[in-house]
Amino acid sequence: MPSRVLDEVMDVAAGGVALFLGTVRDHGEAGKVVELDYQSYVGLAERNLREIEKEVLRKWPVKKIRIVHRIGRLKLGEVSVAVALSTPHRAEAFEACRYAIDRIKRDVPIWKRETLIGGKRLWVAGQTMGG
User: Fold this and answer.
1) How far is CA 11 from the centre of its chain?
2) Does the predicted TM-score (pTM) go above 0.85?
3) Whole-number average pLDDT of the chain
4) pLDDT (tens digit, 9 = 90+) per residue, 29-83?
5) How far is CA 28 from CA 80, 92, 97, 117, 127, in A?
């Protein structure tokens, strides 16, 4: 996924390209994690992701942007979310990328369930997406 989203945002007019990858880590607040399961209202989540892309395009001089979030069961180390974008300068790229991932975490209806060592499964509370 990372190389695909990078390819989609490359632009010869851009001097900065930012890529954020959210990955499945081996721990959470409740303990050691063995896998994650992301669930969502897919249609609504996709619309929200496209709206965030449009908002970022309006706020910064972004040449191209692509946001992808995976749904379903993911193993440790796998990429769950990718935000890639290109801008004329690096500072804008960093700022716009940070804004996009923060908006995803806050507003996109994607929920995360952790499976802990021993098989206990817990929904991560207090976050729309988590990461």
Assistant:
1) 21
2) yes
3) 94
4) 999 999 999 999 999 999 999 999 999 999 999 999 999 999 999 999 999 999 9
5) 15, 31, 24, 11, 13
- Measured CA to CA, the distance from residue 104 to residue 83 in angstroms comes to 10
Q: Which residue has the tokens 């923060």?
A: 102
Residue 71, Cβ neighbours under 10 Å: how many?
15
91 Cβ contact list (under 8 Å, min separation 6): 16
CA separation for the pair 16, 91 (Å, rounded): 8
* Residues 44/27/21/97 CA torsion (nearest 10 deg): 70
